[in-house]
Amino acid sequence: MHRDAGWRPRRSAGWLVPAAVLAAFLLGMAFSSTAFAQDQQLPVVTAAKPVVREIVEDDEFVGRFEAVDQVAIRSRVSGYLDKITFQDGALVNKGDLLFTIDQRPYQAAYDAAKSQVDVAKSLLEFSKMQLDRADELAKTGNISTATVDDRRREYLSAQAQMQGATAALTTASLNMEFTEIKAPLSGRIDRRLVSVGNLVQPDSTLLTTIVTRDPIDFYFDVDERLYFSYARDAKERGGSMQEGAGGLEVVVRVADRAEAAFKGKLDFAENRIDNATGTMRVRARFPNADGVLQPGMFGRINVPGSLPHSGVLVPDEAIGADQDRRIVFLVDEAGMVTAKPVRTGPRLDGYRVIREGLTGDETIIVNGLMHARPGTKVKVEMVTLPPKAETAELQQ
């Protein structure tokens, strides 16, 4: 039997199945390798859930510290500065000697006034004896009434001279005392503004200044709406904004974020609203035993401005800007980034209050915002935000 020339032996189809599996396996390996490489190239960001808890929302204001008492030291008498008896920037107590004016001219004036008192005193004693003698002689008729009147006139004149001499001595004594310039209050003194040997003019030459240290005041301005809110709160506490402000507790933070917040109380508000700005100046007082707070220092004060409510808190680092809007970046389970506009509130316990835009269930990027772009994919490392950012670090 002859085989047809076009005939070929039939190969078994069994070997095609392993070949297909092998091809699929190799294709899968290639795809996995590509996906792994792409995953390795994705930017890494840190994400977390916002902190959701009951808060009392604060109103934040900017202001500056001022000393409770401050005084400019000037001389009451003229003369050349003779001594300086303090160290620049030192703490001084009330009554400490600070400056001494050349005392020699005032000592001479004092001695002259004292001698005039002695003369007037002698004249007064003599005229008194003359008057007493005249009165005795008048009883027996041995002296005229006119002579007695002359003696009485001389006595009254001597009394007036004595009063004038005593007043001059008091003035000379005061001038002598004023040559020693003493601290009128306790506090921290500034540097000397006049050197020894310079002529000091009374009530005009500024020598130095002293400010009290503890406690210290903080002044800031509030608008009418917030003033009414605080005034109602103060009234409920049995006071008024002008008289003690109801003792409302406040917190102030300085420029150094590493420095702990300082706690104090509102204690005063001015008695009128400024027509030009529509604001009222308010004062809070803070203890300052260690002297960290200084007059003129800038600070941000937080005043309770709401009832307790559930709030959403995020770190400031998680908030970005899109022109005039504030946004946070959300990331889903697949690592896809989207932008979410939010309305921010004040800082509280190291976080920023989100008044609108978040419910607290979202996953937000808290670190690595520079790598996040809406519509792109990122590699996410989850962390847990502590209830208060000021007291704990991010926990892995």
UniProtKB/TrEMBL annotation:
One of its GO terms (biological process) is response to antibiotic. Residues 110-179 form the Multidrug resistance protein MdtA-like alpha-helical hairpin domain. Residues 70-205 form the Multidrug resistance protein MdtA-like barrel-sandwich hybrid domain. SUPFAM superfamilies: HlyD-like secretion proteins. Pfam families: Beta-barrel_RND, BSH_RND, HH_MFP_RND, RND-MFP_C. One of its GO terms (cellular component) is cell envelope. It comes from the Bacteria. It is found in: Cell envelope. Residues 1-37 form the signal peptide. InterPro entries: MdtA-like_b-barrel, MdtA-like_BSH, MdtA-like_C, MdtA-like_HH, RND_pump_MFP. Residues 248-302 form the Multidrug resistance protein MdtA-like beta-barrel domain. The keyword Signal applies. Residues 312-369 form the Multidrug resistance protein MdtA-like C-terminal permuted SH3 domain. The keyword Protein biosynthesis does not apply. GO terms for molecular function: efflux transmembrane transporter activity. Its main location: other. Keywords: Signal. Belongs to the membrane fusion protein (MFP) (TC 8.A.1) family. This is RND efflux membrane fusion protein. It comes from Mesorhizobium amorphae CCNWGS0123.
